[in-house]
Amino acid sequence: HLFEALLGTVAAHHPTLARTADALAALDALAALAEVAHRRGYVRPAITRAPTLTIRAGRHPVVEAVAGGGFVPNDTRLDPETEQLLVITGPNMGGKSTYLRQVALITLLAQTGSFVPAAEAEIGLVDRIFTRVGASDNLVGGESTFMVEMRETANILSELTPRSLVVLDEIGRGTSTFDGISIAWAVAEHLHDALERPRTLFATHYHELTALGAEKPRVRNLSVAVAEWKGEIVFLRQIVPGPAPRSYGVEVARLAGVPEPVVARARALLAGLETGQGPVGRGPEPAAAQLSLFSADEERIRRELAGIDPERLTPLEALAVLARLVEMARG
Q: How many angstroms separate the CA atoms of 45 and 106, rounded?
């Protein structure tokens, strides 16, 4: 009887208790956001109806917290009139995916009413954030990684709006090289030419796509800066204007612990491919002719120059671009 009486009393006050619980939950969430913002130096973003996105010294909230310091901030600017689609190239482990995710997270945090991890941010209202990041399959549904990727890409292309933010990472990597390049190129062109002009971040290892910067007026090339020192590569984590000079895949494989004979063989094969001679054989017999997947050095330099906007370069960025051009010219 006592328990039934207690239930009756609680039930009589249920509307008040429910409202109190909702208020406490909201207060708890707001207090948590405020505490994180204060502790980690977040700033209040400006929200605008213009379909633009500007972030100065943005940071990834999770990576920054886990790393415990030393996170390299980066700027972002998206504008459907001038800088609608950013093509981002650079090596694995360089920070491309982190950069993509931090832009999406900063946008999402801003629209939840939170402060954001940046020195300054002006976020144009976004009605949906589309992401195609990472690789996964659907074994139960009988779908390969590539099929899942294509289904997600198809959904993005069919649901675009003028206020969409699109984040694509390595489109087309799950199939052959020529198929992958063709699909990635066509997707990038569609996003650029669509009437909706969605703000887009497009990370890729297909350096051929950097030619879009010279062909499409609202495409801009960015890359992750890398320094070479005594035969080693150093990831600077800084996003700079212009395409990456090369992918550094063999160097990353060596850093990952791939045996040195395998790395040496990969370098030899890469040298053959870059000169248009196909794979380099181990014996004296000549290698079979093969269509080159890579442009000549002059074409690479031309693409690099075509993707640069000198009006937007800072002195430091100009030096980084010049260093890359010198390295490319020296071969």
A: 9
